[in-house]
Amino acid sequence: TSFEDILATMDAVEEERSGERERKTWNRHPAPSIDSQSDSISFQQLDLDFYTGQHLSGMPGPRDGSVAILRMFGVTMQGNSVVAYVHGFAPYFYVRAPKSFNSDDCNQFRLDLNTALRRDGRAGAWKDDIADLVLSVEVQMKANIKGYQGKDKRRFLKIMVALPKLVSPAKRILETGLSVGGYGEQNYQTFESNIDFEVRFMVDMNVVGCNWIEIPAGKYRLRGFKDMKSQCQIEVDVSYEDFVSHPAEEEWAKVAPLRILSFDIECAGRKGIFPEADKDPVIQIANMVIVQGEKEPFIRNIFCLKTCAAVVGSDVKSYEREKDLLSAWAEFVVAVDPDVITGYNIVNFDLPYLLNRAQKLQLPRFPFLGRIKGSKTTMKDSTFQSRAYGKRENKVISIEGRIQLDLLQILLRDYKLRSYTLNAVSFHFLGEQKEDVQHSIITELQNGNDQTRRRLAVYCMKDAFLPLRLLEKLMCVINYMEMARVTGVPLSYLLTRGQQIKVISQLLRKAKEQDLLIPAYKSEPGEDYTGATVIEPLKGYYDVPIATLDFSSLYPSIMQAHNLCYTTLLEPKDLQEMGPDEYIKTPSGNFFVKASVRKGVLPEILENLLSARKKAKAELKEETDPFKRKVLDGRQLALKISANSVYGFTGASIGKLPCLEISQSVTAFGRQMIEQSRQLVEDHFTVGNGYSNSAIVIYGDTDSVMVKFGCTTVEESMTLGKEAAAHISSTFPHPIKLEFEKVYFPYLLISKKRYAGLYFTRADRHDKMDCKGIETVRRDNCPLVANLINICLEKILIERNPQAAASFAKQTIADLLQNRIDISQLVITKELTRQDGDYAGRQAHVELAARMRKRDAGSAPALGDRVPYVIIAGTKGQAAYMKSEDPIYVLDNNIAIDTDYYLENQLAKPLMRVFEPILGKQTHSELLKGKHTLTKTKVTSSVGRLSAFAKRTNTCVGCKAVLKKQDDAVCDCCKSRESELFQKEMVHMNALEDKFSRLWTQCQRCQGSFHQDILCTSRDCPIFYMRKKVQKDLKDQDGLLARFGPISW
Amino acid sequence: FSRPSAFMALDLLQAPLLDEKSEKSLERAASSYENLSECFCVSKRAYTRQYSHIYVVRLMAMRPIVEEVVRKTWEGVRILKLSQVKVDVRCCVVGTLFKRMQLRPSILKEVSQKQGQATLPAPERYISGGDSLILEDEMQRIPLSGNLPVDTAVTGTVIALLGIQLTCGTFEVDNYTYCGLSGQPSPTLDSSLQEDRYVLLVSGLGIGSPSFDALATQMFVDTVTGQLGGLADQEMCSKMVRVIIAGNSLSPETNTNKERRSKIITRKIDPLCVEAVKELDDILTQLASSIPVDLMPGPNDPTNFTLPQQPLHRCMFPQSVKYPTLTGVPNPYQCNIGGRRFIGTSGQSIDDIHRFTSYDDRMEILKHTLMARHLAPTAPDTLGCYPFVDDDPFFIKECPAVYFAGNQPAYESRMITGANGESTLLVLVPDFCVTHQSVLINLKTLDCQLLTFNTDLSGGFQKSNIVEPMDESQ
What we know:
The complex is a heterodimer.
Chain A: H1 3-9, H2 20-26, E1 41-54, E2 66-75, E3 81-87, E4 92-96, H3 106-119, E5 134-144, E6 154-161, H4 167-176, E7 178-179, E8 185-186, E9 190-191, H5 197-204, E10 212-215, E11 220-222, E12 234-239, E13 244-246, E14 259-267, E15 282-291, E16 299-305, E17 315-319, H6 322-336, E18 340-343, H7 346-360, E19 379-386, E20 390-397, E21 403-406, H8 407-414, H9 422-430, H10 439-446, H11 450-473, H12 476-487, H13 493-496, H14 500-513, E22 516-517, E23 540-542, E24 546-551, H15 554-561, E25 569-570, E26 583-585, E27 591-593, H16 601-622, H17 626-651, H18 660-684, E28 696-701, E29 704-708, H19 714-729, E30 738-751, E31 754-760, E32 768-772, H20 783-797, H21 802-817, E33 828-831, H22 844-855, E34 866-871, E35 884-885, H23 887-893, H24 899-919, H25 923-928, H26 978-1007, H27 1024-1042
Parallel strand pairs in A: 3-12, 5-22, 14-18, 16-17, 18-21
Antiparallel strand pairs in A: 1-2, 1-10, 2-3, 4-6, 4-9, 5-6, 7-8, 10-13, 11-12, 14-15, 15-16, 19-20, 23-30, 24-29, 24-30, 25-27, 26-27, 28-29, 30-31, 31-32, 33-34, 34-35
Helix pairs in contact in A: 9-11, 12-17, 14-16, 15-16, 15-18, 16-17, 17-18, 20-21, 20-24, 21-24, 23-27, 26-27
Chain B: H1 5-13, E1 33-35, H2 52-73, E2 79-80, E3 91-100, H3 107-112, E4 132-136, E5 141-146, E6 158-165, E7 171-177, E8 198-202, H4 214-224, H5 231-238, E9 240-246, H6 274-288, E10 293-296, E11 326-328, E12 333-337, E13 340-345, H7 348-356, H8 362-371, E14 402-408, E15 412-417, E16 423-430, H9 432-435, E17 437-442, E18 448-454, E19 462-467
Parallel strand pairs in B: 2-3, 5-7, 8-9, 9-10, 10-11, 13-14, 14-16
Antiparallel strand pairs in B: 1-12, 3-4, 3-6, 4-5, 6-7, 8-17, 12-13, 15-16, 17-18, 18-19
């Protein structure tokens, strides 16, 4: 089904004409008139930031100089956009009070710090403007969160400064040493001085990401039209003490009708060069705007350079000048006032391109896409590093008040995929191929007529539409919203920050309740503590049921059961003061007080998260409304992820508050429990105890043990598994629980973390084939590996026929060596991320890109492109990276594939792993060196140094003897078999033609047009190389058949 | 053959005539013959082209014809390109019809299907409730609604639609028309047709099939060659001027390609049809020694896959090829016999339309293709087809005298006539292997009869003749 057809059958969009009409369709419904004395205002808060401004009279806070004013952007249930300016909240942090400090010294402390700050070079330009840099110093009774403190609270100084930017210099001054009054110069340890101002505010005001804010009547000031500073429809000023923040529960779990804009741009690049904003014009911008929860976008339009024929079901706007196109688009964005902006790679491509282009074209009014009038949209580079996501270079684009949900970034974070092109992604999740048009063709289409530009427009609009469908399919908006609510951070943090901020936000909230303070830890890279807990696998192929017992939420439950926390940690020196019943020693030799003495904060957080998850799951069971179900499901998932990230937080050495005592104790407990479970199973389920067989634990992973009970049916195994789970759970402290989850039957245990099995959760039939750590999704392998391994595993596990699997593998190896494997199966793809020189080692895809540039700069891959290649047979001893070649070039020139490379470097290891447990020691000799590997096909290339001298001689189709008459098909000896030999070749021809017609008509359907040539060059498409290869094969086969004589009678 | 069978039995039982001289030696009659299948023979094949061209040339060839029909039937209606259509303005549009089908098989799905998911057996028919229609011209497409039967619409036909474009973007159809019957030059009939002259159509000999009936096939051969039957039968046979074998001389069991749709590998495999081809050579030798034979290939025969299928290669028939009376012809096949224009296929196009529409009556499908003036409208979409560039050879330029499709489940014939006196005999040639039937067409009268070769011995040896009512005018 083509996109054009989908577009055409959507509900009609009101035709957007120019001027007034247009504004009406784009704009939000006008806000109702509000009486600030009698109407309260509620909105779902989506984005939150602050700016430095002047004090507003009637609001709390210092009256002179600059103050920080927070802005909460949101949408009401009626769909009106709101910004609330929150006044009076000032940044602060803590230090330990010096000994014998008393409250009378506070003012002196304040003055001295103030002076030091004023002297400080880096405290910024506000110095002169602000009377008091330090607003107040106050003694509070608090405790350090780290280390068991008994019931004692100590004196801390709460230091409040005028602006968030002053926190960091104040912290530095205090840490390096400040002399205050009569106390002499001291170094102060600071607490909570590294907390983002927004997070500070949210924690203190009990605001969580995406929750509902209600401002009661009479408590706010409504801004009149001329005072409005933003594009929002409603603007209010409110004191930080006067609004109500609703927890996201019951009525307040609802979601406002957000406007989501998805867009995509096309640029007219020059041949062979990735579009550059200072040279190549933007020619089209497609837009789709949808209201969250609705089915179809209600605005579907495209801004085109030059005329463009109409596209049914959407609005086409043509501009003669690129300047006008860009300006009109910027106006469009402001008029639509989206809450969320999405697209595919908009943050790192589309938006920067537009901004750079506008600068080049000197459009000073373009870069104002945010909600704040007069606030320019800027962009800067940022490097983001995280243990979970690795290092990423990103652009950061400021569009105030609008969330940027770049779908590519979401996918990179949450999904492990073979390829992240929009094409590959939409095929993976939606089962749809997307036409992929090369840059150079885009320019050709643009330079054609209004019909070719129309074709481009349809393509461009699809690229704007797909992100919306993916957002919906993957429930991104809802899931991210729930994650923000659960962890308490702003929505935008979820894509721009790591895991830690989410834990910090929760920890702060809990610490605040108990007057605990988090020290500002200076992170130093150290050894991350990750302890894998594994029982050595007894490798092999098990043709009996293997029951799997899992500890549910293992690490969180250990922390809860043993009360492991910052607040319960005991130093060895503190032990004398404790009674022997008051603390425990963990298997890693650390000490923690028991919950009876002091309940830990982390266990409490975990308890809240897990009980909230239980509740969400229970509600999910009851709920019938599909939309609310999505919300609840998103919530329970967010809660689970959050609970698991707490452990990681304590173990991350580059973190806000690492505590190896906790993390190593957790893993040590885990290891002990796995071992203990093994003992219990093997001691209890014995023939001696009346069981028909003795059980053996064949493998134990981080949180699971695999048990061979010795029974033969899935059902028995399940019964015993449940019994074992209950038996073992009873020996562990609450809430640790071992659960029986599934049975694998049969089960192929390859090595640590690598296994495959047929997965049963019910006795009658299997749920799926489950593979762990096996080459099925690895990105740096060619597809043949995954396909072959998959088929073999299927034959082993589902058909239970290891011999058939082995012979299939052999057959495929023979096919490979005899050059019969479809080339698409051999293509390896890597992204060209840096210039040639920047790679340390020489790499196949980089070398190839360089060679392709020499051959034809026009079609060579540019930076950022993915380079597909195959390894070809080179000269002896030539390095593999020099033997990479463009698959299309290989097809065109009949170049021989290095089949040995594929056998040895791609297939050998994965095959060995799978078959070793089955075939044992002779695996290598049998599978990789057997008889089937003896026949190899030599391919004569049409390029290369020798090919010019080589003369192709035709040989007999039957016996390969060189023919006397070159135009014949068979030699005299084979003449009697001519009919038979002809039929063999004809049957092959027949199959190729079948394939040809099915492949090329498929592409026609995919592109949604039958009267126009297929332009798509999507190398991610599974049939791209096939359709090229079949053309080539047909030509050869036709030539061969022609030697049998003319077809006419 | 028009006499009741009782008389025939008498003939057979009569004593041999003793007088040598009085035994009549029958001469095989002849009629003029002209092979017009040049357009279906593609000698220099090139596979670098795409399928868009064939749609464009098809539309270009047929648009003037259908526009002529439009001007006659819907006077004063404006005929517009799709890009010119305006909302709420009644007009006529011409384009190629496409049916969007959910169940249509897709190689993309097959290739990317995860292993482990069982491949469902292909359904017999691919229609479903969610199917919808689209019209496309050279530039763009438009979804259709209204008075146009989705289930019987055939992808790839050129059609003219009368209606209006709704605000939602679909085109609401009031009425529609195809090219229809037109253009049948008055035939210059052979002088031989002053007497009865017959052409025999047979299809689906099915050699190699488990149900292959050697006796029935031999009876068929012997009857044609005049070695079976009474004097009258022989006399009748002598007036047979030509046999057309309309495909599937071999059975599907000899077709090797059925099981080889593997996704990773395309390997050459030994053909299963070698023995069957030898047997076919024998049968052809017997036939060709007595009568001109035109051998069309069908989907099961060892030739290329895509339409037009090229003639079976001479090298497979070392014996029979020696007779100049044997001609390998393509599928589709077109010729003039005694001045009568024959066009026919081995039935793939009819079978394909049957799979993708709700038609149960195959005669209706055959008629539909004639009215739409196209032998294989679903090619290339769901029916394999060579990527033609300059010409769509399946476009029926002239209304033939006889239009047949081979390998159909049951025999049927129908005469249809057009408004301008065009008349065409439509024939569904039954599958011989299943029905033991072949079709005899009288070139003089265009009467059509069925020959059944019954080998059911319990009922005694008999040859039944059925005369079909003719002249079903349309």
